[in-house]
Each structure stands twice: as C-alpha cells, then as structure tokens.
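ok trying this again, last paste got cut off
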Amino acid sequence: MTTKCIGIYGASGFGKEVLPLVRQLIHKDKSKIEIVFIDDNESVQKLSGLAVLPYQVFKEKYEEKSVVIAIANSQVREKIAAKLEGDGISQLAVCADNNIIMDDVEIDQGSLLCPFVTLTSNIKIGKSFHANIYSYVAHDCVIGDYVTFAPRVMCNGNIHIEDHAYIGTGAIIKQGTPDKPLVIGSGAIVGMGAVVTKDVPPNTVVVGNPAKPLKK
C-alpha cells in the first residue's frame, strides 16, 4: 500500500507548533499517513522525532503527498506555494479543533489557523492566511493573500487588510464603518502592541499607541 505523506514546510519553532495541528487533521483518517518536515538546510535532519527532508527528496520519495507551509515570511510562503503548484502538490488548510468559525466565512487555499482563533461573520480571506494563537477577525472584514497575524491580533469589524501585510503580536485594529472600512495597505507592517486607529499606507511600518509610521 502506498504511504501518504504530509510535509510541514519549515523545520523551525513554528513548524513544531504546527505539527500537533497536522496530527489532529489526520487523526480520523484510517489510512497510513506519514508526517515529515521539509527544509533545505541540510544541517537539520531530525525535528520533534521526525525526519527533515530537502524539498527535492520529499517530492521524489512520495507518490501521494501534500504540504502545510509553516513559514511566517509571506514572500517566502508565496514562492513556496508557486513551487508546489508548479509541481502539482496540493496545500493543506489546517485548522485547530478549538477554532470558532461562525457564519458566512470564505477562506481561500493554504490557510493555517492556530489554536483559539475566532472568525465571526461575513468575512472573506485570501490565500495562505496565517493566524497565530488567540487572534480574531470580526464581522465584515476582507483579508488579502499571504497576510500574517502574530499571536493575539485583534482585527475588529469593517477592516480591509491587503496582500502581504504583517500584523504583530497583540496589535489592535480599530473598527471601521461599512461606508469607510479601515485599510491596512499591501506589504504594511503593524508593530507589536500597536493600536491602529486610521488607515496604514502600503509598505509602511507603524508602531505605538496610536500607531504612527516608524521614522527611518
């Protein structure tokens, strides 16, 4: 019988956190599924008792395979996603058992929702969204592709977050309105603990309370 395999791309601390979520995912599957880490740093061969394989070895070794990308850097995530698509390898969406997902929530492929994440109502989320522990997205939000939430991000209602934005640990984003959503621009970075009260332009780093652009 052919062994199925799930590869966790990223042999790192975050990869170790993702491992139990993958185990939850396959718990009810009665077929034999192997889990490995994927990393092209050949100095690491074992992590959490599992093999660490270079991508090329993983690709050639298993017939039935899929991948979870456990890398916070959104640009790297996008490159890996493109590589997987080119090689015909599917991305898995991973969702902790204790997540709360309410009503009318759309999520594109490759999402990774860590424990205690809440998504409420009328939410649209793009590709490869990462939400770390205790984060939430409230009503009427639109989130682009390759957006990353660190732990405890508070994304309140009527907020639009564009592609490749990074929201730091404990950041609070003030609620917008239906006629004027608060917008976090493409590639913007919201610093740890920042309180965002107004729009953040693309490719801008904001910090503090209230959040202001970081001076170069």
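PB: full thing came through this time. Helices lie at 13-26, 55-61, 74-86.
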